[in-house]
User: Fold this.
Amino acid sequence: MEQLNPGSIGLAACGILCCFFGYRTTRLLLDASGFVVLGLIGVLGAGFASGGHLLFMLGGLAAGGLLGLLVAHFIYRLGLMLFGGGLGALVAWSYADTFLEGNAAIAAIVIAGVASGLAALFLERFTLSLVTAALGAWFTVRGVFLILEAMEITPVRPETGASLAHISTMVLAWAALTGVGFLFQVVAGGRKKSSGQ
Assistant:
């Protein structure tokens, strides 16, 4: 048996948190990160400019932190829109040449990108739930497989039929966990909304 790396356990644990509670934690983590990063820059800048005066440093922390929180909040929305737009444009690009030619194909790709970007922005909960479920599921599966590898355990794969035989066990586990995590986030979010919390 190989030595178990604690990082594998941490990877799996963080993956589970992201997979099942990603929508609730992502915005909070991004906003907190923005506050901390620009807050520290504000403290250092104010401390350097004032010669280490505590009141100026606290002011730099507050100003930099609030600015960082706002920047992170708005970049989050922009990133969500760019992600949705990029995904829609990629899908349209894959199929546009089959049905359209020249400028019509380019126009279809642009329209699909803009429409899917706006859809991602307005369907924020579904988009973010799917993204965090997929990322969290990948981290979880990777961490669990590293733990099993250290314990010298090989997962036994059930019969999947000829259509799925060429897909790796890790990818199948990732896809299944992504679906479960996404459904959990959607159902938990809907239940919270209906209870008025």
Q: What stands out?
A: The CA atoms of residues 80 and 124 lie 8 Å apart.
